[in-house]
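Researcher: Let's run the pair from yesterday's discussion. Sequence first, then C-alpha cells, for each.
Model: Starting with the first of the pair.
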Amino acid sequence: MPPTHELAELATAARTCEGCALYRDASQTVFGAGRSSARMMLVGEQPGDQEDRAGAPFVGPAGRVLDKALLEAHIERERVYLTNAVKHFKFSRAAGSKRRIHKTPSRTEVVACRPWLLAELDAVEPEVVVLLGATAAKSLLGDDFRVTQHRGEMLHLPAELAPHDPATFATVHPSSLLRGPKEDRDNAFAALVDDLRVAGEQLG
C-alpha cells in the first residue's frame, strides 16, 4: 500500500495488486471512480462482467439501476465517489460456456482487499457513506452485520477504520433488484430511492 492520499497514485498501485488470487482470472483491477472532494461515497460488492472489461465501477446493468435511483433521489452521480469492497471480478464459467457468472467474494478476499477501500476512505473523507449490499456492509461493519436489520438507520464505522466518522447507511445492492421477482421490482426500487434520499439529506 503506497503512503499516499492521492487517488490517482492509489489506483495505479492497485493495478498490480496480488493480495488474493482473484487477480489471476480478472481482466484488470477496477478501482473507484470520482473526485477526492466527493461528499458521498457509495460502496458496492465487486465489479461485474462489464465493469471488469471497462475498468470502471457501476457501468453495467446494476449501474444503470443505480443511476436511475440516484437521479430520483436528487443526488448527482458526478458528485459521488463510487467503489467496491473487492476490486477484482470473481466469477465461474458453466461447462462449455464462455459466459462469466458472478460469484460472491469470500471473507478472505474481502479482508485482503479492505486496505484499498480504507485508503479510499482516507483519501476522500466523505461525509456520508452508503454501503450497497451485504458484502460491502460486512467489509466495514463486521461479518455479523445484517442489512435487513439495520437498513435505513444512520450508523457509524469503527473509529479505527474511519476517524472522521462519516454518517453511514446500509441498503441493498442495485443488482438485487434485477435478480428479484419482476412484480416486486417497482417497490424494491422505490425503497432503494428512499434509502439514498435519506443518506443524501445528511449532506444538507
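Model: Moving on to the second of the pair.
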Amino acid sequence: MTTPTHLFKAPTNRLIPCPACFDSSPRSQSVRYTNLGKSGLRVSNIGFGTWVTFGGQVTDEVAEELLTVAYERGINFFDTAEVYSAGKAELVLGKILKKKQWRRSSYIISTKIYWGGKAETEKGLSRKHIIEGIQASLGRLQLDYVDIVFANKADSHVPMEEIVRAMTFVINQGWAMYWGTSRWSTMEIMESYSVARQFNLIPPIAEQAEYHYFQREKVEIQMPEMYHKIGVGTITWSPLACGILSGKYDDGIPIYSRAALKGYNWLKEKILSEEGRRQQAKLRDIAIIADQLGCSLAQLAIAWCVKNENISQVLLGASTVDQLCEDIQALQYVPKLTGAIMEEIERILGNKPRPRDYGRPRIKYKLWLEL
C-alpha cells in the first residue's frame, strides 16, 4: 500500500488520508508526460480544468485542496479562461498559486481568450481584445505570463492574419510562451498555420476539443492529420460529457448535479432527450465492463480517452477531492483496456467514425506548407 500524497479535511476538521488515493499499483497509476504536439512543452497526460467549479460551484478552500492534490499527484497543467465564472476562476486560481508558492517553472498555466466582457470590444479575437484580454487575465492570475493562451473560439469577423499577428505579439512580449486554439475547425487551424508560415509568425501548437464516447469524429479522424501535417497536438476536455458518462443521470437529474445548475438547461434537455435515453442505455451495458475491470463507469470513460495515443492530454474537472482522486486512479486501468475490451466497447457504442473528405486545404495553403 502506498503512502497517500495528500490529506483532506473531514467534517470534524481532523486531517485524515483520502481513501481514494490508496492504490496497490502506483506504477500503473502514475501520471505520464509527453510533448504537446510537436512542440517541446512536456505536459502530463491528464490536466486539471477550472470550468464551472472554481469561482462558482466550489468554495475557495475546496479549490485549493483540489489544486494541491492535482499538483502533488504529478499533474502539471492547469487550465482556465477569462469567461469562467466571469473571471472569478482566474482570480481563485491566482490566489492559490500565490499562496502555495510552487516553483513557477514546475507547472503550466493556460487561459483562453474570447469572451471578456459585455462591451462589443471586450469579446472576440481582435488584436485589441487579445492584447487587453491577456493583460486582464494576467492581472487576475497574478502572473507575469501564462504558458499557453488559447483562442477560445474561431472569429469569422476578424482576419486570420490579425489573429496570428496578435498572438505572435503576445508571445514576443513575454505574456505567453505558446498559443493554441479551442473548438476551431481543422480548416481554420490550417489557415492559421499557413498565415504564420507566409508572414514568418508563430503558429498554434495545440487544439482543445471535446472528446468522449459520444463525441469522436474530430479527435479520432481529423486531428491526427493535423498533427502529422503541421504538428498541432490535441488536448481534450469533458471526458465524462459534463457528467453524463458517470452514470449519475441514469435515474434523472440529481438536485446537486451540473445539469441542475442555473444556465445549464441545455444539458438537462440533452440528458432527458430521446438521444440522451439511448446513451444511458448504452452506458448500462458499458457499466458491465467497468464492473468486470473493478472500476467505476467514470474511470472507464476517462481511461478510454487516455488510451487514445493521438491525444496529448485529457483535461479533468472535479468538485470534490474524492472525485478527483477517483478520476486520477483511472490511469491504472488504461493498460487493462485490451484489444478485446476496446472492441466490446466499440460494439456497444456503435458510432466509430469513418474517414471522409473534409475538404482539402486550398491550393495556396498547400503551397505555403511546401515552402
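Researcher: Give me one sentence on the second I can quote.
Model: The longest strand covers residues 176-182.
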